[in-house]
């Protein structure tokens, strides 16, 4: 269950002590939700950096582009991670030689359709599998499509900077204790590197939730497609943890059609405000912008196609 409680009337245009308290509560709630997953993510990133070599990845990753994308989406779907914690993992995988398009497939499916997310979706909608299956199916196909498009648009890894790989220091020759120590040291550095951008994103998301009234957005949500746009915008700015967003989405059942709820559940884990800020720290701005546009258009298109189901 999410720490952040959101109603359709979130936000206030008034600046007062009470709204500052609300800002503080939402900000801390977002951090409390995200930090455990970031910690898990940086530990895995540290493990990848020290124990996984480029040779390991080359030996196991299919040479065929489509097969590599499909495999990355399947692995992501089985990997319990949130959209914050998965960013450092993807950075390390790409630095180790995973192609950008395979990294994107993992980046998108990990937070969206892992077993914990699907179970929480099933529970949030009254033990009804329909929304959980739609989220899983539409999310997987959308992620697959986005990753394939990325494979044709970008040939380089799009990382801002290539860090010196610790594997170049012959870590395999070090004792296990030294390698574990190196993993923990690397994880600590990664945590502080990622956390400052998480804090910035969480604060901006909390400020928008506090001072921007959702009633303004609801005015544009009368039609099916308009309501989808509204719910996708709310998913982006609320920046909810993907393991808990289904409970928030289910609270809008009496206001918006199911297609809009589905758009909310698919779009938010793929891209949100705090995640975007973290991505901008890792990848070039042009790539993040194009990824944002692709996710928005493809999720909107695919949810529209299944809106009659």
UniProtKB/TrEMBL annotation:
Superkingdom as given in the UniProt entry: Bacteria
Localization terms from the record: Cell membrane
Membrane topology, from the record: Multi-pass membrane protein
InterPro entries, A to Z: DUF318, UPF0718
Protein family membership: Belongs to the UPF0718 family.
PANTHER family reported for this sequence: UPF0718 PROTEIN YCGR
Protein name, UniProt field: Permease
Record lineage: Bacteria, Bacillati, Bacillota, Bacilli, Bacillales
């Amino acid at each position: 269950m999410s720490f952040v409680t959101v109603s359709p009337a979130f936000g206030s245009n008034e600046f007062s002590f009470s709204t500052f308290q609300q800002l503080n509560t939402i900000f801390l709630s977002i951090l409390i939700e995200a930090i455990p997953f970031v910690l898990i993510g940086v530990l895995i990133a540290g493990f990848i950096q020290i124990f996984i070599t480029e040779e390991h990845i080359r030996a196991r990753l299919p040479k065929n582009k489509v097969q590599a994308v499909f495999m990355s989406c399947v692995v992501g779907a089985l990997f319990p991670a949130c959209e914050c914690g998965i960013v450092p993992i993807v950075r390390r995988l790409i630095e180790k030689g995973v192609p950008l398009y395979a990294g994107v497939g993992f980046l998108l499916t990990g937070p969206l359709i892992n077993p914990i997310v699907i179970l929480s979706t099933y529970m949030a909608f009254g033990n009804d599998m329909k929304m959980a299956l739609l989220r899983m199916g539409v999310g997987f196909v959308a992620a697959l499509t986005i990753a394939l498009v990325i494979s044709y648009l970008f040939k380089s890894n799009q990382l801002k900077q290539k860090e010196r790989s610790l594997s170049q220091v012959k870590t395999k020759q070090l004792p296990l204790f030294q390698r574990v120590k190196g993993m923990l040291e690397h994880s600590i550095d990664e945590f502080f590197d990622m956390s400052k951008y998480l804090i910035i994103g969480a604060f901006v998301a909390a400020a928008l939730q506090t001072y921007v009234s959702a009633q303004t957005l609801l005015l544009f949500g009368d039609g099916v497609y308009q309501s989808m746009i509204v719910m996708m915008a709310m998913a982006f700015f609320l920046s909810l943890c993907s393991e808990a967003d289904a409970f928030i989405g289910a609270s809008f059942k009496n206001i918006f059609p199911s297609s809009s709820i589905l758009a909310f559940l698919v779009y938010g884990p793929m891209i949100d405000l705090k995640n975007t800020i973290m991505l901008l720290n890792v990848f070039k701005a042009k790539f993040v912008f194009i990824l944002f546009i692709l996710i928005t258009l493809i999720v909107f298109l695919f949810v529209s196609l299944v809106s009659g189901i």
